[in-house]
From TrEMBL:
<keyword id="KW-0597">Phosphoprotein</keyword>
<dbReference type="GO" id="GO:1901696">
    <property type="term" value="P:cannabinoid biosynthetic process"/>
</dbReference>
<dbReference type="GO" id="GO:0019369">
    <property type="term" value="P:arachidonate metabolic process"/>
</dbReference>
<comment type="similarity">
    <text>Belongs to the AB hydrolase superfamily. Lipase family.</text>
</comment>
<dbReference type="GO" id="GO:0005654">
    <property type="term" value="C:nucleoplasm"/>
</dbReference>
<dbReference type="GO" id="GO:0047372">
    <property type="term" value="F:monoacylglycerol lipase activity"/>
</dbReference>
<dbReference type="GO" id="GO:0046340">
    <property type="term" value="P:diacylglycerol catabolic process"/>
</dbReference>
<keyword id="KW-0479">Metal-binding</keyword>
<keyword id="KW-0812">Transmembrane</keyword>
<dbReference type="GO" id="GO:0046872">
    <property type="term" value="F:metal ion binding"/>
</dbReference>
<keyword id="KW-0442">Lipid degradation</keyword>
<keyword id="KW-1003">Cell membrane</keyword>
<dbReference type="InterPro" id="IPR029058">
    <property type="entry name" value="AB_hydrolase_fold"/>
</dbReference>
<dbReference type="GO" id="GO:0005737">
    <property type="term" value="C:cytoplasm"/>
</dbReference>
<keyword id="KW-0443">Lipid metabolism</keyword>
<dbReference type="InterPro" id="IPR052214">
    <property type="entry name" value="DAG_Lipase-Related"/>
</dbReference>
<dbReference type="InterPro" id="IPR002921">
    <property type="entry name" value="Fungal_lipase-type"/>
</dbReference>
Amino acid sequence: MPGMVLFGRRWAIASDDLVFPGFFELFLRVLWWIGILTLYVMHRGKLDCAGGVLLSSYLIVLIVLLAVVICTVLAIVCVSMKGTICNPGPRKSMSKLLYFRLALFLPEMVWASLGAAWVADGVQCDRTVVNGIIATVIVSWIIIAATVFTIIIVFDPLGGKTVPYTSAGPGHLDSHESSQLLDGLKTAAISVWETRMKLLCCCVGKDDHTRIAFSSTAELFSTYFSDTDLVPSDIAAGLALLHQQQDNISSRQEPEEVISHSPGNPQEAELDAELENCHHYMQFAAAAYGWPLYIYRNPFTGLCKIGGDCCRSRTTEYELVGGDQLNCHFGSILHTTGLQYRDFIHISFHDKVYELPFLVALDHRKEAVVVAVRGTMSLQDILTDLSAESDSLHLDIDLQDCVAHKGISQAARYIYRRLVNDGILSQAFSIAPEYRLVVVGHSLGAGAAALLAIMLRSSYPQVRAYAFSPPRGLLSRSLCEHSKDFVVSLVLGKDVIPRLSVTNLEDLKKRILRVIAHCSKPKYKILLQGCWYELFGGSPDNFPTELDGGNQRDLTQPLLGEQSLLTHWSPAYSFSSDSPLDSPTKYPPLYPPGRIIYLEEEGASGRFGCCSAAQYRARWAHEAEFSRILIGPKMLTDHMPDILMRALDTMVADRPACLTCPGPGVPSVDVA
């Protein structure tokens, strides 16, 4: 930090990012130099041949050139190790060293070309020498190609537009010019991000929904990333520091008192019943993922179990719509749910932006018509996730401020139209009119399931929804409260998705700015110690941060270090409330659906949840407990459906035997 300025433009790399690449290049160059020197010393007597003088000159010049390069790279590494993230002063000579290092590539390229030409002429010398020269030429071109690739990676398309204003900012311009500058930068940033998204998702398609999703995603990314002078390694260092700080604060807190409930306690009985329901309906949410999740969960036997279904042709017993390997999908669904062919009303694997796969089945055990919505599994689904603006819902309920996540609400509307307009639900209830409607899903599917239940409740008052690991940024406050009567969400451990919203991401950005501004250690030490801590644990007290969690206060005034991390035209520069991500119209605060069951980990298990079985305790939780993103190795693994299913298996096995017997006065939710 900040991004280096070379050739009159900003680059997406800081002057303290060259320690690890420099050491790697230094290692290769030294080995290469020793090899060339050894080759020359041991075989120079064999160069008395046609063209030998040229090869001898080539090796001598290469040895000298490599020595100069090694000294330059060593100087770059030493300078890059100085200072801190927010104190680049000791590294002010870095630009001159890089200019010199880049200038050395010219003779390297010339010499590599000459070496290739001489070898191609068929020099008649000792074969060992010739092979050594060939290897030298190949290594030279590999390093040159790697350097060109690195330059492409760290190239910032907006670097040339932002550099003239990084020091002075637009404050020296009048209001009209300043407004034009900001609008121009914003438009350029959105265009760059939209181009990146189109390149990344080039095979998604070009329909109207896709174009809208690209535009929404580009605007979100440009708003979030364009107002800071952070490079990717700064964010990685900030996340490492936040994890250690978070664990340090947790270790200082008093352990929570565990309140025991008598078996007849209504709240405890209701929790037991809902846990059993979650355990049952999670099978449907997992089945909606089709064969990929089934094979992932059963790597050795899964393919054998569904192989026959993949090759079997069934066209009359069930209705399949869209997608590839449909019979494989259906085979995995049968094995996951334990249902029969005749129990399925509709299965759709049609997958586009704002249009999610789903299935409808008759669950005779619970006497329910189950609608299961698939979670994120494709680039189209990711674009649906990232369409994070708020979208108004037109519902037949008397509520103020009915808004929700745009992408997920569009996906819920699509499924609603399919279920109602295509008569899928009517067909299901014509077969089982006494059954209740249950909507389930995991991740993206959980958000769509909750919104779908809200839309269907006017027609099906007894509808219930089970949302497994739903995104936090889903519903407005009024819809969140409304959904508590019929939606149950389940959150596991440190899962990041139930804590993920635009508001929480903005909070995370400010926390990263604060923690790296207060850190007194160089970045390479933060990253090394952070990697060690993530892999092997340790005491967070031994890690580099001067922050004390007990003394934190609201970030209303920027410290000098934090201020230096923000671009001077950023609305967040003054830490005012008019940050684009705090906009009450486009990105209002959104909340998770329904009541929340929190499976909280007890004790310590493997760092990534794969070395030992974790133990959990279940409790009702308030949405405020998920108002901050937690950093840790399990923030991603706890979201995986197979990990959640394993945790539910453990929880249900350890609960009392009266799971299916609700306490007095508790509704019979286990039949839902």
